[in-house]
Structure to design on (163 residues):
């Protein structure tokens, strides 16, 4: 992999906490800062496509994500995405051929000390270089086929989907 395309959509990974509002809001993408801090050995481009909680990502947003990928000559794509509808977005991208597309996110904001963001990004970076072409989800130390994974909200993790 010579170059990585990173598309950011928002989600918990980019959330920030405002004390005066007692509220989380989606802030600036954290991925460039994270990749630079990791001292990655490849070039990357970041397209901050949207700043949405994934519960608000709809069909038009997914079409925009797909169009952005289709318009690019990139073959290795990492998408940061909120976890609540990550699988839905992954499934919507399955028609894009000849590319390695990995979606990842975080269950705790990247700015938090105990965030899983850096771990999930690292796992996704390894995956995007090794997986077969297709669409994948990287969460909780596993690489998932989006047709075989679900978010267990009660346990706050991704798990194999019951068939």
């Amino acid at each position: 992999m010579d170059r990585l395309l990173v598309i950011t959509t928002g989600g918990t990974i980019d959330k920030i906490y405002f004390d005066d509002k007692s509220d989380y809001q989606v802030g600036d993408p954290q991925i460039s800062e994270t990749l630079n801090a990791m001292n990655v050995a490849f070039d990357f481009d970041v397209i901050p496509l949207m700043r949405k909680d994934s519960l608000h990502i709809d069909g038009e947003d997914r079409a925009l994500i797909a169009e952005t990928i289709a318009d690019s000559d990139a073959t290795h794509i990492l998408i940061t995405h909120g976890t609540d509808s990550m699988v839905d977005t992954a499934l919507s991208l399955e028609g894009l051929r000849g590319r390695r597309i990995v979606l990842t996110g975080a269950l705790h904001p990247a700015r938090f000390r105990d965030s899983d963001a850096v771990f999930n990004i690292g796992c996704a970076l390894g995956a995007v270089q090794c997986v077969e072409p297709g669409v994948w989800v990287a969460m909780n130390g596993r690489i998932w086929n989006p047709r075989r994974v679900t978010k267990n909200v009660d346990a706050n993790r991704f798990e194999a989907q019951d068939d």
User: Anything to note?
Assistant: The helical segments are 31-38, 59-70, 86-92, 117-130. The chain has one domain: 3-144. The chain has a mean pLDDT of 89.
